[in-house]
Design goal:
Elements (H helix, E strand, L loop, with lengths): L6 E4 L8 E8 L8 E7 L2 E6 L2 E2 L14 E8 L7 E9 L1 H4 L4 H4 L13 E7 L5 E2 L5 E4 L2 E5 L3 E5 L1 H4 L5 E6 L5 E4 L5 E7 L3 E4 L5 E17 L8 E7 L1 E2 L5 E2 L9 E5 L5 E3 L6 E10 L9 E8 L5 E5 L2 H17 E2 L1 E2 L12 H14 L3 H14 L26 H13 L2 H21 L25 H22 L5 H17 L6 H9 L7 H14 L11 H10 L3 H9 L7 H5 L35 H8 L2 E3 L9 E3 L9 E8 L2 E9 L4 E7 L3 E5 L2 E5 L2 E7 L1
Parallel strand pairs: 6-14, 12-21, 29-33
Antiparallel strand pairs: 1-13, 2-7, 2-10, 3-6, 3-8, 4-5, 4-7, 8-9, 10-13, 11-12, 15-24, 16-17, 17-22, 17-23, 17-24, 18-21, 18-23, 19-20, 25-30, 26-27, 28-29, 30-31, 31-32, 32-35, 33-34
Bound molecules: beta-D-glucopyranose (BGC).
Amino acid sequence: MNWEANWIKPVGDYGDVCPAFVREFTFEKDIPQEAVLTVTAMGMYEAVLNGTRISDYIFAPGWTSRKRLQYQTYDIRPLLRKENTLVITVGKGWLRSPLAGWIDNSKSDPRLLLPPGLCARMSFSHGEDIETDVHWRVRESPVRFSELYDGETYDARITDAPPALEAVAVFPGPGCALVPQQGEEIRQQNRLHPAKLFQTPKGETVIDFGQNLTGYIALDLPPATEAGDAVALSFAEVLDAQGNFYTENYRGAKSKMNYICKKGSQQYTPKFTFFGFRYVRVDAFPVAPEASFFTAIALHSELERVGFFACSHPLVNRLYENVVWGQKGNFLDVPTDCPQRDERLGWTGDAQVFIKTAAYIYDVEKFFVKWLTDLSLDQEENGQVPHVIPNAMPGEGGSAAWGDAVTICPWELYLAYGEREILARQFESMRKWVDYITAHTTEENLWMGGRHFGDWLSTGETQTRPDFIASAFYARSTALVIKAGKLLGKDVAPYEALHAHIVAAFRDAFPGYHTQTEYVLALHFGLARGDCREVARALAEQIKADGNRMTTGFVGTPYLLHELSKHGHLELAYDLLLREAYPSWLYPVTRGATTIWERWDSIKPDGSFQDAGMNSFNHYAYGAVVDWLYSVAAGIQSVEAFPGYERVEIAPRPDARLGWLCAQYKTRRGWVRSKWQYTGDGIRYDIETPVPAEIVIGDATYRVEKGSYTYVVC
Ligand code: BGC
């Protein structure tokens, strides 16, 4: 239900200072039995009633397409008194901070000229509503500066001596629909204490939190603090080879936390900014810094954890934990590429690559339904899908494998949660994308031409042909439009004909494969001509010829192990999984990684860094291997004919190099558990299913009802 109320803004220009809007109100008689605050802002807001924050929601109202803005509704009855003061501070947030640092540094983006608007209404069980209007007042808050990339400056002295209240003006607001909160709220999650506080070789004081994370620091200052003392903190993900603090890979993001103290002990956490970090450098502090003054707080959307995994191999377990931390750190309301440099955007390709894994770890239905709503809103009229959603790079879009998030994400959600409604909501958007490709290709039935990211960050000497990738995804998206359309009772005959033509044209245009990714896409999307086992054998040989290592980038990597294990090369799939030398999933783990790196060699084997221009240490894309751990190694798979785990297939595929492995996944119908263990004289499988299941152990298939089952194979 859309909502409306007056918008207000300060009459004066507050520059970088975040305004605090104030409304005092009194109840002459009884305090109302019911009281609700509905609120949103242009940027981010923090609402405090009678000195207490009204909600745990961090960074409300969240991040959406500019075509809409979420509002939130809070029960404020417990905080009401006879005499009340409501203070709502408004920061720049995603709406008004510079985004995509490399294109916005001219500050010419009209978003940056938007005022800090506030729109709120309190409704009571008796008495008149109080709405934002000229009876509100505003003043400078202690937040002197706050932007997403550059950090925050807070002057605590202002809390003791607030500036005078000033007038507000009513204005039209952002001119978009106000919609209710759709996704999960962002909340403070893990709290981490310093693993160590130390001096670097350069003599700088640095705190190591032992884990790369997304969030900020909670400061706890000792009683000896004087008014005007300064705290200055810098953030970093890694130390360089010499053990010094390294921030070059943040690019333009200054990422600073500056705090000016009032007198005495005090606490502070930033209001409207976050950092991607493991290390904190203490640039200024009133007293000798002690570890106990600092707590790292991880922030992410409040998602329900549904998946757990462990096995006998410590490095694989750490890899898994790194993927979980990658998801935490990049699921702040929007699935982002990374959380630290001047980027942090909802890159469609990254989301597409990772969604299946994401759904095995957290319940992501609501999260992605929100994002896909924004995708539909920001999709161009002609069907082009922007590179990032919400669209912070207007005019840029239309890359194969990135734009295909439009079809792949709804389909993966449908398989995981079984809701046809998701497909119904997204169908037009899916169809428009396929029509866009049809209208823009230079050759009928293939996708030739266009500007694509290709097999991003692949390591092979031979590059996967962009036209190959584009045409393969054209086939894939068309196939998904057909599947979705049939389920929804649509006439998809034209798309069926198109798909048949694409497959035929693809086979003629690309009779042979030059890279691992080309083999993998041809197999995974049903485009390979002839016997798939022969094609997979050639893929295995290609891997051998490439030095027994993968060369795949963002596009090929998610499907690589699947295509090997599916077509008789399980051992090779495990070889790649367990490989520790560069390039491999475990190489970063051997180098101490606590999240997934953007590149296979973000730290090169010689200890030096990859190019700082593109070197994030918290990029979940390559973490997509986790879906193979669940669906093949542990064997827990959704069944297309029974989506949402109405039935499940459990087909574990063990390897003796892992003595045991277990995974559990909470479907909407209960927990599926799969464990296997080498016992010395055979393999024991323990399986639990909440629904009828097909259990495949080696060559034997068992059709079972819900229950727990044990199989021993000697
Ligand atoms: C992002 C990627 C993204 C890519 C497009 C990068 O800057 O960090 O993850 O998919 O651009 O190729």
